[in-house]
Design brief:
Alpha-Beta Plaits, single chain, 34% helix, 6-stranded mixed sheet, 6-stranded antiparallel sheet, D-amino Acid Aminotransferase, Chain A, domain 1, Aminopeptidase, 24 strands, 592 residues, 14 helices, alpha+beta
């Protein structure tokens, strides 16, 4: 091992270097003229690695405190990635250590991520990266620290060949970061392949008679990456589905948001949190500091499933099932996979991308619509990540919605024989509401809830209903409100009391020239990678409804699926690859 030419070595970086055989299982720790583990002359070790001998800061037996490890992976050509920091649980004993016997027979408990202040964690990551660069290491390493009781950090050693034992800290940190063992090993191999072949491989290919443009190689590289990481994409999806993010389950929504935030942080995205009080937090991620996004990806964290209707994740015959898997969580998995593929292909940095994840889709963006609109205005293009149609459908238009709440009640002073039969009245109104759709083209009426309260032998005292009216044209909005109100107030009198209010809604997304042009561009990309897409109208409202009409948009970039808002909600497993590849290439094309 030797230092590479571009390795940055700081003159004031203090470290000790130890060299031991390839098959040695123990590391070496030097302190002055003493050594721990195997004994090697310090000067000989330093000479072997072309570095001067410098004493380790502090004596090992004086470093009582907390044991910590920082695991590093290098994305070749980009920054060194630090996996979540691990704390070795010393069970309250600041003088404890983890011996070889502990590792082999009774490993100490690992706490990951370690409970550290962000300033301390960042200082530790910075030290680890500095040591990694100073030693000219490649691909991956594990860096061991001891934190004293005053919070001071002491770098003990770097393991340039960190153990890949399933119980080891490197594999464990990778799993917390969302990578299973196969994915972790693939990441290491991919980095090594790029480092080993590098430009030489590409230059050789370019010299061949049939020259292939780099843009034509990108789809192959992205598809190859996604195929080899499908198990991780499915694992991500399962993890998200397992978190019940019912819209009024604030803890669940925020737990999901925090897990997703960790994935975006590893991709180099910064997080902007929009705190809410009655619902969970909305999140906005960006990988740039510009005022405008090349493209904005939109999804949501919340679902309409409470603890009674929640359906856990399952896989059966090529389909993945679970609450929210088609409406939002499969789409988030596609976003993450597409961005990871672009990073692997080393083109992500050129893209100015934003990702908006709202927390009130179920409530039709009652709390977040103003903020959503501002972010969409600052984007050149907007993409929604709801599920795609089974025919490969991408929506150029989406329905709008008005949601109404109606209450009917009899006066308590009215005798039973003079009370209005609320069941009959409610039935009449339901029939009249449905007739609106028959009269006006582009309207669909859905009776969402109906409730009647009564005692035996008595007419109902109270009734209520929730109605959803879906519509396709913005100019129908006022007509719908007037028609619904007219039907509600019919037969209202002194005995029958009526209350009526609009509780929420979203405007429709209309099919514009900008949207059609955007679809045609996407269709050409899809044809190159043999992915089927079809232009469709989405029959339900979308998070991207707040986008100004002059900005091109498309909805339905999530995996193919259906049966949303039901226990049978599903996506097609293999469509995760096709949709991720398509999104990655559309993102890359948006840079142009």
């Amino acid at each position: 091992m030797k230092r590479t030419e571009d390795s940055a070595v700081s003159n004031d970086f203090i470290f000790i270097v130890a060299s031991y055989g390839v098959h040695s299982a123990k590391g070496c720790h030097f302190r002055g003229d003493k050594s721990f583990g195997r004994s090697y002359p310090a000067k000989r070790a330093a000479k072997a690695l072309y570095f001067p001998t410098i004493s380790l800061t502090g004596a090992l037996d004086e470093l009582n405190g907390t044991g910590l490890t920082a695991d590093l992976m290098i994305d070749y050509g980009a920054n060194i990635e630090a996996l979540p920091i691990i704390e070795i649980d010393l069970e309250g004993d600041p003088n404890a250590i983890q011996t070889v016997d502990d590792k082999m027979q009774r490993p100490r408990r690992k706490i990951c991520p370690a409970d550290l202040p962000e300033q301390t964690a960042e200082a530790m990551r910075s030290l680890a990266r500095g040591a990694f660069n100073a030693l000219g290491l490649f691909d991956f390493a594990r860096v061991d620290f001891r934190m004293d009781q005053q919070g001071g950090l002491h770098l003990l050693e770097i393991n340039s060949m960190a153990s890949l034992n399933p119980t080891g800290s490197f594999v464990y940190a990778g799993s917390v970061a969302g990578m299973d063992f196969n994915t972790l090993v693939n990441r290491m191999l991919e980095t090594a392949v790029l480092r080993y072949f590098g430009k030489t491989f590409i230059e050789t290919e370019e010299k061949q008679k049939e020259e292939v443009k780099s843009g034509e190689q990108l789809p192959v590289r992205i598809r190859s990456y996604l195929r080899s990481h499908l198990s991780t994409i499915v694992d991500y999806t399962e993890k998200m589905v397992s978190i019940n993010s019912y819209v009024h389950n604030i803890e669940g929504v925020n737990t999901l948001g925090n897990w997703i935030s960790g994935r975006f942080q590893q991709l180099g995205f910064s997080r902007h949190l929009y705190p809410q009080t009655e619902i969970g937090n909305s999140l906005y991620f960006t990988n740039h500091s510009k005022t405008e996004n090349d493209i904005l990806l939109v999804g949501h964290l919340d679902t309409p499933y409470d603890y009674r209707s929640f359906t856990p994740f399952k896989e059966d015959r090529g389909k993945l099932y679970g609450s929210g898997i088609a409406s939002c969580k499969g789409g988030i998995a596609v976003i993450l996979a597409a961005l990871q593929a672009l990073r692997f292909a080393r083109v992500l940095r050129r893209l100015h991308c934003g990702v908006l994840l709202t927390s009130d889709n179920t409530l039709h963006n009652r709390y977040t619509h103003a903020n959503n609109s501002e972010l969409m205005k600052k984007s050149k293009r907007v993409i929604g990540t709801n599920h795609g149609g089974l025919n490969g459908g991408l929506a150029l238009s989406c329905a709008g919605i008005h949601q109404f709440y109606i209450e009917l009640s009899n006066s308590k002073l009215t005798k039973n024989n003079r009370k209005t039969d609320l069941a009959t009245v409610l039935a009449e109104k339901v029939i009249a509401w449905h007739k609106i759709a028959a009269k006006i083209n582009g309207i669909f009426v859905q009776i969402k809830t109906l409730n009647l309260d009564s005692f035996p032998g008595q007419k109902a005292e109270f009734a209520n209903a929730t109605i959803n009216v879906f519509y396709t044209k913005k100019n129908l909005s006022e007509t719908i409100k007037d028609q619904i109100k007219e039907i509600v107030e019919k037969r209202s009198n002194g005995n029958l009391q009526v209350r009526f209010r609009l509780t929420g809604g979203r405007q429709p997304v209309e099919n514009t020239t900008h949207n059609r042009k955007f679809f045609n561009e996407v269709n050409k990309i899809a044809a190159k990678i043999e992915v089927r897409v079809e232009p469709i109208h989405q029959d339900f409202p979308s998070d991207i409804a707040h986008t100004p009409t002059h900005i091109p948009l498309l909805e339905g970039f999530g995996p193919l699926g259906g049966e949303t808002d039901s226990p049978s909600e599903f996506i097609i497993r293999d469509s995760l690859i096709d949709r991720s590849a398509l999104l990655a290439l559309v993102l890359n094309d948006s840079v142009k």
